[in-house]
Amino acid sequence: MDRNDWYTAQELAGLPGLPTTERGIRKLASSSSWNGRKRGSSKAIEYPIESFPIEARVALLKKAENIKIGEKFYKVKKSSIEFYCRESLWQHWNNASNRQREKARAKCEAVMAVAGLIDSGIDTLTAFDSVGKALHIAPASVRRWYYLARPFDRTDWLAALVGKHGRNLSTRKKKEAECSPDAWDFLLADYLRPEQPALRTCYARLKEAATAHGWTIPSLSSLRRKLEREVPTEQMVLLREGEHALMQLYPAQERSVLELDAMEWINGDGYQHNVFVRWFNGEVIRPKTWVWQDIRSRKILGWRTDVSENSDSIRLALADVVGQYGIPKHITIDNTRAAANKWMTGGVPNRYRFKVKEDDPKGIIPLLGIKLHWTSVLFGQGHGQAKPVERAFSHGGLCEVVDKHPLLAGAYTGASPMAKPDNYGERVVEARVFLKALAEGIAFWNRRPGRDTEVCRGILSFDAAFEQSYQESAVRKATAEQRHLLLLPSEAVTVNSGTFTLKAGGKLQNRENRYYNEQLLGVKPNKIVVRFDPAQLHASVLCYTLDGRFICEAACIEKAGFGDTQAAREHHRNRTRFVKRTKEATAAQRRMTALEVAERMPDTLPPEPPESRVVEICRPAGNTVRREWAEEQPETGYDHAFENAVACLHEQQQKNNLGV
Questions:
Q1: Is 0.90 topped by the overall pTM?
Q2: What is the pLDDT of residue 333?
């Protein structure tokens, strides 16, 4: 038996069918009565291969270079490809083109046929010729494919037969046109700029620089392929288009709205119409509409139109929504100057608009208990994907159903200066006509069936989807006071002698309105919140504390002319009434006169004179008298008790003497 047929416990550990440790091998050898012997002069014990399980014998024979069969040794020929990475092989298959894969399938079919013929006992040359004639392929090609695939496992033949075009990086670089490193750097610095110059122009500058510096440059098409190959798309977008464009390469997040109820969450934004309208003041403008939309159903709930996006249109549109459908739980808007004004969002900690003061009044949205959400600003620009209402302004939205309405024919301006219609400027519509077209267009937008959204499922309209959920939703209804708050914006003013001044609404002619109420006299602190209707500033306004508690209703005091005697008499009459009314209220408040107060006061007794404890002592000193002051010691109970004790003792002694 050859030495290669004997193995130690260390060599056997971990083989198939055997323990994984040397101790386990020795324990198994002892229990199985293996015939062991010492290996040479060492202390190691080796065991014969006949004692091992069949799995271990196979593993040992695969490792052996020579195998003894009978009395003769046979050398085992090693495969030229003993190990290969299957993942890398199939990765090359994934990177191959469809044409390369079709060629690999044809090659694999021929190789499989050759292998089948050889397995059936046909010699290789006959197999090559037979398969070549049957498939109309040259036998030499069949032979080359067969020997190319044979070192690999049969299951990997398809991937192994894919063409190696471009697999070797060094081979591919040899085929590339030569380009000087300085020329390549010059092109990168010129082309990858925010100005986004054309590659053809950059190549023209590169040719002039190459002539001056002696650079070697390839053709324009070669440089274009080199750019696509060596500069990743995301890096090219970042350097030429900026961070915001790079951010847009990242896939958008898909958010589900099925867990929301109708009127649980709304969002709003402004839309600039592409229509010439003569507004109520006679000015020709392109009006802007603020839109509130339900996020679940995508229905447009309310809207108001004005000359620009301002707090009044946002507030009035929200008043329409709350008055008709109820108070939502969440609102999402942009952090713009109009949407994030103090009248609407004052008191929200993360408003990030205007100067935040401690005495700022609470805005309407926080007062109604609505949680406000701001849209994100990513890399310097707004993130329109955060609001579903943005989709209502894009292609097929309000531009189609409102701006291109038949009532507005001839007034459409086009979405951009480059998209003006042929009848641009032909007509200017009146404001009332535009508002009618706006109402009809939004109603058409809401009732149109077959909407492709998560809730509508390509079947329902926005109106139908909203009604289904709204009937089963618990929505807070607004009280009369809450609706009153929505109709009146708020402003913090300073009270002086019961009067205050409002600057809102009088800026066109630089005028102010002054308001007064007796209950504001002596109010602390001297700042209050005034809620008013901009269309009725000459009527009364409502006064609240800074934390939202109602105080009173103040009336507007109009300015009078300098020589207006009638206004002076009216003012004197009102002042006299105020004084008289105050006197009557004061008399009613004083239920007790001063004489009654004096009668009920307790009698005042003269106080006892204080006892002096200092005695003046006069002593003659020559022909003068010296005055000394001595503090009189008060008698205490201790002195009196001592005198009584002495008297009792003296009396007892006399009795004792008489008894003797």
A1: no
A2: 87
